[in-house]
Amino acid sequence: MAKPARQTASLSRSPGRPREFDVAKALDKATKVFSERGFHGTSIADLTHAMNLAQGSIYKAFEDKRGLFLAALQRYRATRAEKLRKVIGAEGSGLAQLRRALGFYVQSSHGEEGRRGCLVVTGATELSAFSRDMARDVAAAFDRNEALLMELVRRGQKDGSIAAHIDARAAARMMLCLTQGMRVVGKTGRTRADMQAVVDLALTAIM
Predict the structure, then answer these.
(1) pTM, entire model
(2) Which of 70, 46, 44 is nearest to 58 (CA)?
(3) Would you state the pLDDT for residue 7?
């Protein structure tokens, strides 16, 4: 798959003096702030400081804080989905692939990244209470994650690495709740061993 071209935004600081910035890098910086503080807890001042951009530049590129958040969310979801696909890979049993998928969330739920939190869980879920469109987007994101987990469970049932009598949909939903819960608990400061122990125990329920 071809890599997307590097995006830049050209903004006028003064007549004849355009200012360019790397949109992807700017969005990644905004993502960190939104993930840590939530949408409503993040101010424009927080964003200008983190992104090293003038307030006017942010408004010109993204219209408002909500526009910036939605752009950051779109990039965050696409980036995370691609990383997860690579972690899962194509080798091994369904159980092995599921274990790798859950390990991806273990890695994201401890240390500095764990304390920062998940943009979907922290920010998008917060916004969904006030926006019907955002509520649909969050539900769709969770549905996609659940569908992927269910595919891995069914793959494991087909190759015999996961018990055939298990309800694949219920198992996938359990794993979805587990992974999202890990992202929340991870904000309180947990070790990798803490999170891995939870995953290991959950997997025994489907073997």
Answers:
(1) 0.84
(2) 44
(3) 52
